[in-house]
Each structure stands twice: as structure tokens, then as C-alpha cells.
Amino acid sequence: MHKFLLLGGDSRQVFLSRILAGNGFKTTIHYDSEDSSFSMEEAIKSHSIILFPIPFTRDKISLFSAQPMDDLGIGNILSLLTPEHTVFGGSIPAYVKEYAKTNGIACFDYMDMEDVTVKNTIATAEGAIAEAIKLSPCCLHKSKCLVTGFGRCARTLALKLKGLDALVTVADRNDTQLAFAGSIGFDTVPLSDMKPSMGEYDFIFHTIPALIFEEDLILSMNPEVTIIDIASAPGGVDFEVCRQQNIRAKLCLGLPGIYAPQTSAEILFEGIVKNLS
Amino acid sequence: MHKFLLLGGDSRQVFLSRILAGNGFKTTIHYDSEDSSFSMEEAIKSHSIILFPIPFTRDKISLFSAQPMDDLGIGNILSLLTPEHTVFGGSIPAYVKEYAKTNGIACFDYMDMEDVTVKNTIATAEGAIAEAIKLSPCCLHKSKCLVTGFGRCARTLALKLKGLDALVTVADRNDTQLAFAGSIGFDTVPLSDMKPSMGEYDFIFHTIPALIFEEDLILSMNPEVTIIDIASAPGGVDFEVCRQQNIRAKLCLGLPGIYAPQTSAEILFEGIVKNLS
Amino acid sequence: MHKFLLLGGDSRQVFLSRILAGNGFKTTIHYDSEDSSFSMEEAIKSHSIILFPIPFTRDKISLFSAQPMDDLGIGNILSLLTPEHTVFGGSIPAYVKEYAKTNGIACFDYMDMEDVTVKNTIATAEGAIAEAIKLSPCCLHKSKCLVTGFGRCARTLALKLKGLDALVTVADRNDTQLAFAGSIGFDTVPLSDMKPSMGEYDFIFHTIPALIFEEDLILSMNPEVTIIDIASAPGGVDFEVCRQQNIRAKLCLGLPGIYAPQTSAEILFEGIVKNLS
Amino acid sequence: MHKFLLLGGDSRQVFLSRILAGNGFKTTIHYDSEDSSFSMEEAIKSHSIILFPIPFTRDKISLFSAQPMDDLGIGNILSLLTPEHTVFGGSIPAYVKEYAKTNGIACFDYMDMEDVTVKNTIATAEGAIAEAIKLSPCCLHKSKCLVTGFGRCARTLALKLKGLDALVTVADRNDTQLAFAGSIGFDTVPLSDMKPSMGEYDFIFHTIPALIFEEDLILSMNPEVTIIDIASAPGGVDFEVCRQQNIRAKLCLGLPGIYAPQTSAEILFEGIVKNLS
């Protein structure tokens, strides 16, 4: 029987630990610094499966942890792994994957599991919607929303905005994606040609991991617009210009962990089970 | 030209004041205690239209105000009104309406304006959705949602939940309402027969201003359920039992003022204009 | 045990007969003239429940029948009924109801059963959509659709058109209905003020049992428009003017019987059972 | 200025000809055999752009034509083309494309234009829905629908069925496609594992160009099911077995030409303009 050790992370780890236990697995979770008797060395020795957080790290030195913890140094932890271990984590850095390969350690990145990332778009979309409703003093209903990009996250989000009766325009670089967006009911605009209509939008949801909204475009916006940026940090919006222009804009990272840690943990659990069997 | 005086209330008053000014009306807003030179007597004398807050009062002594203010006593303010005044407000108490009638003061309650209340259901629905996403660690997507009642608020909310891919069941006392709910795609259950399926729901949205969820029903719920109560205070859920059972439940009042003060103010503005002309 | 006699009508009667039989009831159906040994007198004598068609009659002389039949004279049939009989039918004329009352015959009109009529709107809406797709050489997707009225049929239809990504405008006389329509995402226009926007619509779905579309409005239409009239005969469109103007227009009556006789029969069955018990 | 010659085909050619003329282009259409003075040789000589039908051919001998015509032999027509010609058509056979390339004739296949094919899925979906409503005596509303495949056509169709309140399950070979389908609200089932749930469906929409529904699966179906096959001929259903089992099944080809020739012609026009410029 597998024994799971969960290290750091956010509340998804807590839910994941509960789900594993509920399915009969032995689990140990090291999530905050309360248990002073915890020994990383013994814990790694006595567990065959290590569940690293999402993301694996933010500072490139320690595992990411929502709680302050001082024993999550990446170097030390890696040195304790052996070919008997199987590890999972999110957005694992290339050098860690390389280290695992070289040392015969089975290593799975949640972000490489297509069905995990697709299912995660749901929690991201719901979180982005909650953020937009909170941040703006206006309703989404019948508002004009721009969604940049039409990848997995953008599709789920655009459909849910439409489900809330928003009027959604999709901007993308790719003609085929725009035609697809049009075929499921969205208005479309080429990403390179957004400026003329920039002033029309009440909400902008940005999903492309690239700096798209620079000063020029921001100055063309309706000053009452609300921008929700869900692209990876540092996002795709010049927030400094937004501040100067008094435009509401928020970089929203890690939405699944904030808004749907339990559902997210269930998705991770399914991904883990599938890859272990 | 009408001159508007706005007294107390929440940020909807601030937005309403701006909209009136933007449409060329003279407005004075008395929203917090910063302006020490403000004289209620002079203000009421020099303005023909008084916009009271929503709700008119919470404590039955002073006008409702989100900011601490000490010159909003209802008795004093009423005594200053004359037949030259026209007043607007939300949920105005019967005795105030009576006083206005007796004294020849034109008095309009936003809550009696059908189109204002119907449009307000949108902001309420979006706010309820944001609250549900925040409160629950699970997604609305494909969750089982119960909406009690099928009045104006419930309809708008149920349709938006469906737009987010939730599986919505409507509970109502009235067979015709249930048939109507069924014809637009909802599952239905008689309000008096909810107990057998009570354990199935992930979310419960309560819109009926009556105590429906007492101990008996609460004990039949899935312990992981999330309850959002948007019925008027004191709501329709025994929150004490929820606390004992460790069930997530929140009474959410005044959602339009919290989540969409600008859109709400635009709706009030339209209602005011319509009734003045 | 009840014995059912079904007389005349369209294929709903055939399906209804099968459903009754499938539920263990004895049924006799007199639907076409094939069985030359059929005696109306004996049939009515030996069955306690008579299921008349929908509508009860079209010519006011005989029961309505999709098949040519010559023994369905209303006068004769009524004279055979006794207080032991219970009768059901759709749109039963007032004088027949009066006759039943006077003679102690229990008489139920499907059209007076709120849940039957509400459920029937679904089949009507689907039929109207199929007719529109067939009649027009254009797509409903992203087309501009006008739905006149916002009663039961109109609501179901408008929501389904929206579900197909049509851009739906609702026209109604009543401000409250328009506010309600707006709150669930439709554009709205007062019925009395349709002319200025008349030229914008690609499809018009008419649900109001009154002559609304006369020459004046028809001449303001886009000549490529497609009109589907689902109001009761003779409908609410001047079809002669449409013909002259070469405008596609079709009066669509009895859509549930044409497009969904089985689902319709199930709904009738539920209505019958509810009223018998 | 380009001169367009349209040969054979269905009513899309008639609408396309009108749209071209409406945009100021000279066009000649050879659509039926009424004009006995028509000379193919002169027509091809005097027009630089030839618009072949969709599909290019059905019998591999003559161009496809909905009307009986005897001068559409492919060999003769090809021999009249010169490097001055540009040709368009749908599903052009490989050998014709090869011939064009060898002889310096610019040749565009509509089916290779991604945005044309994506937009065409809309008319296909609406046509499939109309066919389903007509063929089945039941409603789509709340029915259980299976959509096989999750390519372009299937996606558009599945979303529209959901918009009509059908309960849609998507079957596909590919896990990623299934996760995507799940993320936008559909139930999913692996294509290889459909048998256990086969009996649940009221409607089956088949979009995969392969024989999937053979005797074994058909015998597991609900006998009241309605099958709409929109995969390319000969379709993916054993229609002979369906007939024996008395199961409603219809192969529906060329739906855009039947249900939306005008919208389809507009899409072709956009594709032509884009490729000419």
C-alpha cells in the first residue's frame, strides 16, 4: 500500500490529504510548523510517494508554502529522494525534472496531465468571475466583456460569462481559433486589432501569458473598465499605468487554490491515481 | 430644475449622486459626517427632492447609513418635509408613507416600482453567486444546487446558476410555478417534500422570506453543503443549528449595494426619472 | 378499473392510448374509419372515461379529427353521455362545458390545467424552432429574433432561441413583463413602439392571439425576414400582405401534435391521472 | 474585375451568385438546363474564376448537381482550364487538385479553409436539430442525447443541444477531448465503453466518419431512440439493422445546403474574397 507525504502548498494539500485518507491510504501532511517533532529525513524515508505543492516553488529556493515554514529547502529535499520514490507536483522546474530523471526517481507534473489542467480551468473561471463581481461596481449581466486568448482557460471562462448573460468578445492571434469562437456564439476581434474597439469593454479578462496591455491600449480603454488578469505572473497588463490612470485591474493567481481547493484536490487525486496505476 | 438631496445609505447613494450630476441635476449628498457645516434644516429647505436610502431604516429610529452619522433621526427629518417635497426611498415603513400622504408629500418607494425590483434581482443573483464561490471549497460547475422559491429573485438566480453549468432544482409551494420552472429546464420538488432529497445538494440558495430550514431539514443535509440565504432578515435558516452541525451558511443581505452599487444606482436613477416625469 | 375511449384527434391520441394501455388501463381508440363494426353508442355506454381530442372541434359540428371520419358529430355524442361519464378534451367550447355541468357529467379541459399548458410550451417552442430553421435559408445563430408577447409560450421559446445563440428581443405591452424579460438577458421593446426597429429582425416569432402585424408594420420589415406565427388561428399576421410583399410567413398551429405527439401524450396522461385521483 | 462562373451544385450556388452580384461582380450561373444556348467552352473562356459545387462530385464522373444536367463531365471541364483560371470548390478530389497544380491552375478547396468549415458547423448543427425534432415524436428538452466525437461539428452541435436543455453526453476516443467536453459542462463516456449506457439515450447524433454503430451496439439501444447521422456518407450506422429493429435512424448529408443555403453562401463568399485578395 502506498504511503503519501504531502509537503507545503496551500489548502489544496489539506483537502488532498483528506481525500487520500478517505480512500484508505496512509498519509502524512507537513503543511505548517506546528508539529515540532517532524523530521523531514525520516518522513521522506518512510513514505514512497511525495506530493509536492502547486506551484512547486515560487522563490526557487524552497517549496511553495502558504504557511511560514523553514524546512522546505529544495536542495535538501531532493538529496533525500531515492529511486524508490515517486513524486508529484505542479509546475516542477526543468532542473528538478532533470535531477529526478538522472536519479531514477519517477516524477509527474500535474501541469503535464491534460485532463488535470483542463478540469482546473473550471475553478479558475469561477474564481475569475467572483473576482470580477467583487472588483467592479457594475454587473456582468449584459456587460461587454473582452476575453483575450482562446486556450483552455479562456474557453471555459468565455462560456461561463456567456452563461451569465455577458456579451463576450474573444481576441486571439489565430484565425482558426477566432472562427471556432464565432461558431459557439462569441463576437471576435484579431488580437492585433483590438485598439479601435478598446473603449467599448466593461470587463477585460486576460489569459495570455504575455504583456499585451501596455500604455497605448490602456489609454484607449473606458476608464470604468475592470481588468482581471489570470495569465501566469507577472501577468499581461502594465499595472503601473493602470494605477496612474485610476483603472481597476487585478492580477489573480492561484484561483483554484483560493476558490475551490476541495474540487481541485479531487482533480489532483484522480490524476495521481491514474498515473500510479 | 429639480435639486436632489441624498441622505445616508450605502455607496449606491454616492453613485446615484454622480449619475444625477452627470445628467445635469444639482445634487447635495450627505453621506458621512465629514462636512461639519451641514445643516439638515437648511438642506431640506433648499432641495425639492429628497432621496432616502435603501433600506429607509434598519433601527426604526434613524435613516440607514453605512457610515456613522448622528443627524439622521427620522422624526426630525419628517417634521422638516413640506408639500413642496418629493421623496424617494427603499422599503419605506408604512407609518412614514402614511405621514407623507396625510401631509401632502409625494412619496415613492423603490420597492413598489416593479421594474426597479426586477432589475435589482440581477445584482442580487450575481452577488449570491460570488458569495457561493467564495464560501464553498467546491465548484458550482456540475454541482447540485437547490433554489427555494421561484419568485423574481429566484428565477434570475436559477437561470444564472444554470448558465454556470450547475444542476439546478427549484423548490416551491406552487404547482404552476414548478411547472414553469420545469418548462425552462429545471428539476423541481415541492417545498413540502424536500426532505427525502435534502442530502443530495452541494449548494442551497434560499430566497423565501420565511423560516424553512429548521433543525429537522438541516440534519438531513449533506454536511459539506453551502447555504446562501438571500431572503430578507432574519432569513429562513436556523443558523444556530448550522453552527452546531458545522455547516457553512451565510445570511447575505443588501447584495446589490455591496456588489453592484453603480448598476443599482443606474436602476434607481431610471426609476426616479420615470416617476418624476 | 377505468375504461378509456379515445375519439378522433391527431397522433397524440394514438400515443395516449398506448401509454394508458402500458399503465394497465383498458382502452379503445376510434381514430380512423377502418373498423366498420364500431358503434359509437355501444362504445360510449361501455366506457366510463371519454378522451376527446385537442382541439375539441375545429368546425363546431364534429369532433376534430386528423383522419376523415363521419361519426364524430358533437350533438349525437353529447346526447350519449351520462353522469357516469368523465370526459377530457382540449379547448372544449363553453356550450359543451355548460351542457356537461347541467347534466352532471364531470368535464375537464386540458387547457385549464396549468401544468399541462406550461409543459406544452416546450413542444411548441421546439416545433417553432424546427419550422424557422426549415423556412429560412439563413441560420438562427446570431440572427436577430423578435418574440412578441412574454406569456408562457413566448418565455420558453425565447429562452430556447437564446440557447441557440440567437439575439432575442422581446416585445410586450406590459412594463413588468419587459423588465422580467430584461432581467433574464433579453433585449426589450414596447409592443406599441416596434416600428422603428422593425427592419432589424431576421426572424419574428409571434405568440399573441391578436392581429398585430398589419400592412404598416409589414412594410417596415426587412424583406428577408421569416415570420413564424404560433398564436391561435387565425394568427396575428396579415398573411395576404406578406404574400404580396414576398415575405416568408407561416401560420403554425398544433405544433405539439405534429412535432412531439409522444411527449405531449405523456403530459396529457399525467394531467388525466392527477384529475382522476 | 473578376468574372465568376458558377457550375452545378445546390441552392447555395444560387445564393452565392446573388451575393457576388450584389457586391458588384459579374457572374454567370449554370445551375440547370434551361438555357439551351449555354456553351461550356465559351463560358470557361470568358470567366477567370470558376466556382465548382460542394461537393465537387458525387459520382466521380460529373460535377455534382441538384438539377439534372448533362454537360458537367469533369474531364471535359478540366481540359478547358488554363493558368489564367482560379477555381474554388468543395471536397475536390485529389487527382483534380493534382491536375490543377501540374497545369498551373490556382485551385482552392473550401474544405481546406478552416474558418469556412468551422462556420459551416453552425448550419449543420441547426439542420441536425431540425431533423431530430421532426423525426422523433418526443422533445429534445431534458432528453438524454449522445454526441459521438468532439470535433468541430460535434462541439457546435453539443453546445446547441445543451442550449435547448438537452442532457448531453459526449463520446470520444481521446481523453483530452473528453476532459475538454467535461470542462464545458457535458457528461462524457469513452467511445470504446459506450455499450453499458447505450440503452439510456433518447437521441444519438453521430459525427464520426467511421462505422461505429454496428449490430451489437444497436441491439443495446432503447428501441425508442432516434439516430441522426451527420458523418460523411455512407455514415457510421448500420441502417439495415436499424430497419430490422424498427429503430428511427436517418443519414443526413449536406445539411447546410438544405437548411441554410444563404448563410452558407455568405460564408463561401467570405472565403473566396479572403483567398483572392
- Give the % helix of chain A: 40-55%
Number of strands of chain A: 11
Spans of chain A of 5+ residues with little confidence (pLDDT < 50)? none
Number of helices of chain A: 11
**Quick one: CATH class of the largest domain in chain A?**
Alpha Beta
Strand content of chain A: 15-25%
- The strands making up the biggest β-sheet of chain A line up spatially as 8-7-6-9-10-11
Regarding quaternary structure, what we see is homotetramer
Tell me the structural class of chain A: alpha/beta
State the end-to-end CA separation of chain A: 12 Å
Largest interface: A-B, 26 and 26 residues
CATH superfamily membership of the largest domain in chain A: NAD(P)-binding Rossmann-like Domain
How many separate domains of chain A?
A: 2
Biggest pleated-sheet summary of chain A:
6 strands, parallel
Average per-residue pLDDT of chain A, rounded, comes to 95
- Please provide the ordered H/E string of secondary-structure elements of chain A: EHEHEHEHEHEHEHEEHEHEHH
Textual characterization of the structure:
4 copies of one chain form a homotetramer. The first copy, chain A, is an alpha/beta fold and 277 residues long. The first copy, chain A, has 2 domains: 3-112, 3-Layer(aba) Sandwich (Rossmann fold); 118-257, Rossmann fold. Helix content of chain A is 40%, strand content 17%. The first copy, chain A, has helices at residues 11-22, 40-46, 74-80, 94-102, 114-135, 152-163, 175-183, 215-219, 239-245, 255-259, 261-276; strands at residues 3-7, 26-30, 49-51, 86-89, 106-109, 144-148, 167-172, 187-190, 203-206, 226-229, 248-251. Chain A has a 6-stranded parallel beta sheet, sandwiched between helices. Chain A has a 5-stranded parallel beta sheet with strand order 2-1-3-4-5, sandwiched between helices. The longest helix of chain A is centred in the middle third of the chain and has 22 residues, at 114-135. Chain A is elongated, with a radius of gyration of 21 Å. The model of chain A has no long low-confidence stretch (mean pLDDT 95). Chains in contact: A-B, A-C, A-D, B-C, B-D, C-D. Chains A and B meet through helix 5, helix 6 and helix 11 of A and helix 5, helix 6 and helix 11 of B.
